[in-house]
Specification:
The complex is a heterodimer of chains A (244) and B (145). With 244 residues, chain A is an all-alpha fold. Chain A has one domain: Four Helix Bundle (Hemerythrin (Met), subunit A) (Up-down Bundle). Chain A has 7 helices and no strands. In chain A, helix 1 packs antiparallel against helix 7 and helix 2 packs across helix 4. Chain B has 2 domains: 33 residues; 85 residues, OB fold (Dihydrolipoamide Acetyltransferase, E2P) (Beta Barrel), CATH 2.40.50. Chain B starts with a helix and ends in a 10-residue tail after the last helix. Chain B has 145 residues and is α+β, with helices and mostly antiparallel strands. A 5-stranded mixed barrel of chain B has the order 1-3-4-6-5. The longest helix of chain B is centred in the first third of the chain and has 26 residues. The chains are: A mainly alpha (244), B alpha+beta (145).
Amino acid sequence: MHRFANPARFLRMAKVILPYSSGIAVLSLAAGLWFALAASPADYQQGDSVRIMYVHVPSAWMGMFCYVAMAVFSAMALIWKHPLADLLAKATAPVGAAFTFLCLVTGSLWGKPMWGTWWAWDARLTSMLILLFLYLGYMALINAFDDPERGHKAAAILALVGAVNIPVIKWSVDWWNTLHQPASVVKMGGPAIDPSMLVPLLLMALGFKAYWISILILRGRAEIAAQKIRIIRMAQIHAASRGE
Amino acid sequence: MTRKQRRLYFVLLGMAALGAAVALVLTAISDSLVYFYSPTDIVSQRIPEGRRMRIGGLVEEGSVKKDGKLVSFKITDITNTVPVAYAGILPDLFREGQGVVVEGRMEKGQFAASEVLAKHDEKYMPKEVADALKKSGQWNDGKSK
C-alpha cells in the first residue's frame, strides 16, 4: 500500500489506467442503459417503473462505496501521513455526494408511484439522508481553514466518525421495520432478482465504479498540480522577501 | 512503539469505542426507530385508542371490500389481524397478499387509516418467470419478509 502513496508513481499509473477506466465506464454504461431501459423485462409487480432501479441501486452503492473509500484514504492520511491520501479523499467526496443525491432523488421518484409517497422517515431513507449531510459537511470542513493541512486533518476525522453510518445504512432494513424493502442482491441465500434484471444492474454498477476511478485520476492530478503551484508560490514569496 | 503505530492504534480504538457507543444508543432507542408496528404488537401491547401510529403487514386475501370511496380490509402478520377502514386513493401496488403500511389511529377496535402506503418485497422478476414459478409450484408466496 505504501508503495502507491508516492505522487510521482500515482501519476505514472494514472496515465496507464485512465484510458481503460474511461473506456470501461463508457461501454458498460452504454450497454447497461440499453439493457435497463429497453432490453430488460418489466417487473411482474411494478411493471416498467422497475427501470428506475437500474440507476437508483447502483447510485446507492456508489454513495456508500465512495464514503468507505474516503474514510480509508482519511485513515491512511491520519496514520501514515501519506501526502496523496488526503488528496484522494478530497477528490472522492463530490463524487459520493453526487451519487447519494442521485440515489435520494431517484428513490423519491420511485417511491411516489410504488409506495404512494415521495418520502418516509424510515431508518433506511433517514440514514441515507445523513450520508448526504456527512458528505456536505466533509466538503465544507475541508475548505474552512486557511491552512489546507488543518482542513484535511479535521475533515479526515469527520470522515472516520461518519463511517459508523455505513453499517447502519446497510442493515437498517434488517434491524428495524422500514418502508424500504430488504436487500435484493447482497444477502444471505443469493440474489432475489432474476438474472435478466441482475445483469443490467451489475453493468451499471461496474460503469459507475469505472467512472469513479476516472474522476479520481483526473481530480487527483488537478489536486497534485494545485499543491505544486502552492509550493512554488510559497518559495517565490520567501525568495522575494529575502531579496529585499 | 513508533508514532505511526501509536496513531494506528489510536484510530482503531477510537473507531471501536465510537462503534460501540452508536450500537448502544441505537439498541436503546430501537423502539422509536421502527417505521411501523405489526398487528401482533398492536394486539399484545394494548396501545390506547386515539394514538397516531403506523401498522404494517399483509393485506389479507379476500378481505378487501370497496364501497364507493370507502375501502375496508384486514392487515395480517399471519398470527394476528387488524381491521382497517380507509377513504382515499390507494397506491398502484396495493393488492391482496401484498405488504402495506397504514397510518392512522384505532377507533372502536377498527383502525381508521388516513394514509395507505404499499410496501414491496425484495424480489424482482419478469412476469413470465413469476407465472412459470407459480405453475411449477415453486412459488413461496412472496410473503416471507
